[in-house]
Amino acid sequence: MKFNEFLDNLSTYEPGKDIEVVAKEYGVKEIIKLASNENPFGVPSKAIKALEENVFKANLYPDDSMVELKSKLAQKYSVLNENIIIGAGSDQVIEFAIHSKLNSKNAFLQAGVTFAMYEIYAKQCGSKCYKTQSITHDLDEFKALYESHRDEIKIIFLCLPNNPLGECLDKDLVLEFIRGVDKDCLIIIDAAYNEFASFKDSKKHLEPKDLIKSYENVLYLGTFSKLYGLGGLRIGYGIASKEIISAFYKLRAPFNVSNLALKAAVAALDDDEFSKKTLENNFSQMELFKDFAKKYDIKFIESYTNFITYFFDEKNSSVLCEELLKKGIIVRNLKSYGLNAMRITIGTPYQNERFFVEFGGIYSMV
Amino acid sequence: MKFNEFLDNLSTYEPGKDIEVVAKEYGVKEIIKLASNENPFGVPSKAIKALEENVFKANLYPDDSMVELKSKLAQKYSVLNENIIIGAGSDQVIEFAIHSKLNSKNAFLQAGVTFAMYEIYAKQCGSKCYKTQSITHDLDEFKALYESHRDEIKIIFLCLPNNPLGECLDKDLVLEFIRGVDKDCLIIIDAAYNEFASFKDSKKHLEPKDLIKSYENVLYLGTFSKLYGLGGLRIGYGIASKEIISAFYKLRAPFNVSNLALKAAVAALDDDEFSKKTLENNFSQMELFKDFAKKYDIKFIESYTNFITYFFDEKNSSVLCEELLKKGIIVRNLKSYGLNAMRITIGTPYQNERFFVEFGGIYSMV
Question: Which range is the signal sequence, renumbered to this chain (chains A, B) (predicted)?
């Protein structure tokens, strides 16, 4: 059978290994997964309650107006419901953005190493990709590349803080950069981890209201998968001008998010205790990961997220990750990003201690 | 901001009214929703148990290999895991199919009145739509249209049984039709309601294995939203040749289905008692809807689904639906399909009795 030609250039996404699958494969009993930047404290208790109360309604289609969650987000961010679109993860909002702006005649711009899905989705549109030489976000390079291809570039991705590296630009520099970009170029601020960056350093904090009121070409992306502990439910959102949101709505399939996800997200936004505990644990435990790196002379970038990325010189990240797997610890090997590095999610004190003990042993041996 | 031109031709989907929203609007206490063909008995108890056991894991990303559910379906249908793709509702598999085959230079073929999403998704690809004059599936017309536009038509939709009308073609006629279609034309058998048709009449039963083993260009679609009572969780599947499934996989975003949906679907497949109760209630209650129609001289098509569609001559379906809403009963007005008709989901005996009492009163008055 013949398929549309653009499929020829697409490859299939290879999923990471599932905990249960790994456990079976390696015959280990306890698996510690520090690979996907999930919340190590599980699900907020208010969200669990909401889920338990609503499992009996799983037969009913979701309220496709999503008014309850939109109103809650609108209130939190002081924007209008019309400025918000809910996606099956913020991923899906990235997909809407890409399909609404990119095509085979234009291009997008991103950091040298950043969230892999930008490029994967954009490939579906046959759009050209410009990347900075720098793996982290270097705004001078962004500016130079944008100036050279101003007519061509229709989306600029800024991942703030950046996954999978962890660095984060200051808000003031971001705003200055935005001002230099044409109004017809969509600037996507991927703020999936911004709550972590904001907690650590207020200079990194990005307020959707300020962005979209001043800049009609900015899309702010948030997610419930990280701080809010709902990665399994696939729910995130985009905030932008009504014009942008209306365009995205044309690409949205009805009922794109489950009713349980909607209920859990509303409840999670109210669980301040859970968020506080997550953020405090994250950055106090982050110090231990920095100390560990220093002790073993491992390079790392200062992280504003819920993970830390270790870079290796002589040792091979693939070997190190494989050895960790044998001990039941899953981290993210960054070989597929062209880096000899691994990304480790900051876990609970217990999980991290297990990592330090096992990885210390492996690192000295390998 | 300028968006890709194809967006100009798209309109935004208008969602149906949510139960809670209607309740508030009309100030009615008890709402009976017979509008979306949801399972009136709620969620299978085995699925509820699976959900309750897994709410604590909602922070963890789904197993993106979906091996557990795929294996279960593979076993049920005697096909291979590689013949299966899981979607956020079978809707999403329709989307994959359309994007992989349709473009602005080709066309698709469907019944005069059928599931609205085929046309909505296909519009995104700028593809031409051929419809039969007959509102229900008329295979002679399908054949004639296909013969006249053989080179152009790349997808044929057969909704078996048909939503929103309820009629269903016999398997033998379907197979004969398939044999006359070129191998490069994808035939989509939308079997969302086929369990209902099969229960009523074994001549309507379509077995995915038989279809895909004999015909490499057939895609079978199933859903957990109807018989299996999981409409709110957004989960369905497609079964086809490995070649077709591989093409669709290129368009699938990772983690396109939530972990709770995957767990609930596996459990729902095991809940035979729930399925049996649903099917038996559906067709015994269907008789009452037929009796009611005869009593009031309302036309209907024999239904092989979990709904029945009433057609009106002088009375206006919009007025009738509005009057029912005031009584707290939501049914589906088919005006947007160009029909003076309403689609009513077969509910529980209690719900149906409420419908008969209220609608009887309204019908005589209006």
Answer: none
